[in-house]
């Protein structure tokens, strides 16, 4: 088959054209040349959409949506917020709403990190075990971008699913308390999402340095145990035992994204509840400081993972 | 002009020395077949060429640059790993579109380009099925498809036909033959099917224990390894076979003779092979005969023997595959 034949036939059959296709592309002119020629015509938005980072993120997003865990997360948080608001705020009054927020904060410290770790622990090691990581890393993209793109894609799905899950609780809050409470509820929801993204970043880091999915899962569970339970116990013990100052308390909070979430959530209400929360007043932290700390928890683990993937044995 | 230069490269994984001072050069446009024992270092070499790993010592240059230096080399090189896999929830078309986007195939050409590749690798009918439902062979075809996306200058394919059915192997052969004859794409692939390397490759390299045991044009390797052909005969009875084996053993031109039941095998020079057959045919009833020319199999065995000779265990799989695959047969019923 001639070059003309193969280049004009949009629906070739298998064999002969199959063999012609790669050669034809090379004879007809190249991808890179065409790209250079057409680049000026492409809009900035189109180029952004085709950037390697967003392409990887978009693929990860699609995978996550199809795997149905996004639906599971939305349902889980939908049930969670519905139950908390239904049982906590059905008796009208501002005090009841404070109890709702406190309950979301106290139960969220278990649920949010567990969900995020479960979503992210296999991000890199899973692709490696499946055989798709090598193919991905053989593409013209830096290894770091593969990690960051993967994290962005999963974070987008996780955030979307969680926000969707907070909607039923928001509707019930409006019904029982009124529109005035929506701002506080939304702030708690956003804090939960930010915390989830931070823990997702940690999960991606774990996934990057783990040799197998089993190891990554074990490490993720150990991290969950630490951030949800042990960190507060150790911090409380240290504060009480060594008479540490407010700086140590602030550091203890900032060193645990789950505590950051608790601080942000409880800052929306007057109550101070549970565990490490009892010493928050002494810490001298402001809401923007804690939010910034949580943002750092999102960025730093992913950045470290982007560096450490260079050392991953393929 | 060399498009690949590997100079005295060593790579170890813990205590395992995968590559040990390997050097290799490949000219632009060549089709190089790489074969060797299991664990010889082929995959490690390919990963170095693709920039996935760095050598402990030595240097690697592909298309004039260090493969680990940025993404320049990976823009021109396509690497298909031996165990390539894909997310099961994506379709074949989506995976190729993803690779096309990552390879900067122009937006307006992308769909057409993907469609052509799907036809190339014989997956057009399964393009919109999820990869999780693909067979192993279909996954290999899809992997080959990803290697064809864009405008490759160098193809590095790690056992591309492993697990493929005959149609898939044929499609692969057609692609390689087309690229080799019509473009200056450099193709490097490994295979345990030595007949495949003989058919497709202009050059071959045998790797053993992390080093190049021997390398060169395929024809030269074949000739250098052995200048005798193997004659196999099936006779009407074991007694006749015994007599024929004795007769052949008395000929000076026959180097070795062996018999098993009614079958006789002898090695002799190509010029004398048909004389022997004629002589035997005049005296005995021959049910079947075969004259096998020397192939890369002989070069492989010689290289492995020369490299240390303990190929009895680790060489088993490759040697068996070689024996099954590396044949150029002529045979049939006697006239």
UniProtKB/TrEMBL annotation, chain A:
GO terms for molecular function: ABC-type transporter activity. The keyword Transmembrane helix applies. GO terms for cellular component: plasma membrane. The chain crosses the membrane at residues 69-89, 101-125, 146-167, 187-207, 214-230, 289-309. Pfam families: ABC2_membrane_2 (PF12679). Keywords: Membrane, Transmembrane, Transmembrane helix. Residues 1-39 are annotated as: Disordered. This is Multi-copper enzyme maturation ABC transporter permease. It comes from Haloarcula japonica (strain ATCC 49778 / DSM 6131 / JCM 7785 / NBRC 101032 / NCIMB 13157 / TR-1).
From TrEMBL, chain B:
Keywords: ATP-binding, Nucleotide-binding, Transport. Residues 4-234 form the ABC transporter domain. CDD domains: ABC_DR_subfamily_A. Residues 314-325 have a biased composition (Low complexity). GO terms for molecular function: ATP binding; ATP hydrolysis activity. The keyword Ligase does not apply. InterPro entries: AAA+_ATPase, ABC_transporter-like_ATP-bd, P-loop_NTPase. Residues 305-335 are annotated as: Disordered. Pfam families: ABC_tran. This is ABC transporter ATP-binding protein.
């Amino acid at each position: 088959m001639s070059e003309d034949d193969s280049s004009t036939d949009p629906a070739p059959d298998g064999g002969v054209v199959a063999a012609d296709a790669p050669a034809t592309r090379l004879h007809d002119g190249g991808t890179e040349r065409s790209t250079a020629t057409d680049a000026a015509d492409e809009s900035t938005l189109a180029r952004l959409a085709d950037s390697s980072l967003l392409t990887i993120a978009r693929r990860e997003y699609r995978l996550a949506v199809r795997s149905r865990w996004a639906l599971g997360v939305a349902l889980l948080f939908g049930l969670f917020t519905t139950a908390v608001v239904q049982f906590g705020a059905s008796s009208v009054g501002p005090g009841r709403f404070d109890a709702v927020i406190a309950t979301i904060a106290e139960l969220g410290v278990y649920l949010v990190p567990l969900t995020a770790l479960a979503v992210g622990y296999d991000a890199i090691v899973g692709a490696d075990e499946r055989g798709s990581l090598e193919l991905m890393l053989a593409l013209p993209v830096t290894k770091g971008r593969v990690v960051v793109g993967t994290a962005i894609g999963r974070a987008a799905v996780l955030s979307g699913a969680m926000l969707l899950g907070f909607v039923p609780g928001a509707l019930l809050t409006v019904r029982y308390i009124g529109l005035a409470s929506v701002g506080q509820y939304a702030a708690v929801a956003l804090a939960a999402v930010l915390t989830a993204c931070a823990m997702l970043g940690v999960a991606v880091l774990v996934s990057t340095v783990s040799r197998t999915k089993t190891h990554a899962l074990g490490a993720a569970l150990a991290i969950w145990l630490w951030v949800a339970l042990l960190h507060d116990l150790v911090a409380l013990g240290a504060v009480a035992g060594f008479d540490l100052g407010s700086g140590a308390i602030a550091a203890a909070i900032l060193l645990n994204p789950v505590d950051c979430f608790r601080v942000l959530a409880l800052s929306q209400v007057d109550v101070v509840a549970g565990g490490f929360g009892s010493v928050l007043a002494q810490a001298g932290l402001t809401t923007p400081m804690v939010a910034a700390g949580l943002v750092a928890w999102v960025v730093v683990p992913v950045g470290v993972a982007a560096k450490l993937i260079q050392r991953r044995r393929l | 002009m060399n498009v690949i230069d590997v100079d005295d490269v060593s790579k170890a994984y813990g205590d395992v020395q995968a590559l040990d001072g390997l050097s290799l050069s490949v000219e632009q446009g060549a089709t190089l077949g790489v074969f060797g024992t299991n664990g010889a270092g082929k995959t490690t070499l390919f990963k170095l060429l693709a920039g996935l790993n760095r050598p402990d010592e030595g240097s690697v240059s592909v298309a004039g640059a260090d493969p680990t230096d940025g993404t320049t080399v990976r823009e021109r090189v396509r690497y298909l790993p031996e165990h390539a896999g894909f997310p099961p929830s994506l379709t074949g078309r989506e995976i190729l579109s993803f690779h096309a986007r990552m390879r900067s195939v122009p937006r307006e050409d992308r769909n057409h380009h993907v469609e052509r590749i799907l036809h190339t690798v014989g997956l057009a009918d399964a393009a919109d099925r999820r990869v999780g439902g693909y067979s192993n062979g279909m996954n290999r075809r899809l992997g080959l498809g990803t290697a064809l996306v864009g405008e490759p200058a160098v193809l590095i394919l790690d056992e591309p036909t492993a697990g493929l059915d005959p149609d898939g192997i044929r499609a692969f052969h057609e692609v390689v033959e087309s690229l080799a004859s019509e473009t200056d794409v450099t193709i490097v692939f490994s295979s345990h099917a030595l007949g495949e390397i003989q058919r497709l490759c202009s050059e071959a390299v045998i790797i053993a224990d992390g080093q190049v045991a021997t390398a060169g044009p395929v024809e030269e390797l074949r000739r250098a390894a052995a200048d005798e052909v193997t004659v196999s005969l099936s006779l009407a009875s074991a007694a006749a076979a015994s007599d024929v084996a004795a007769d052949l053993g008395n000929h000076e031109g026959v180097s070795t003779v062996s018999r098993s039941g009614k079958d006789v095998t002898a090695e002799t020079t190509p010029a004398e092979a048909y004389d022997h057959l004629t002589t035997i045919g005049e005296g005995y009833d021959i049910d079947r005969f075969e004259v096998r020319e020397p192939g890369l199999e002989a070069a492989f065995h010689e290289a492995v023997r020369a490299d240390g000779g303990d190929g009895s265990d680790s060489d088993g799989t490759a040697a068996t595959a070689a024996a099954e695959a590396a044949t150029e047969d002529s045979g049939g019923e006697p006239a």
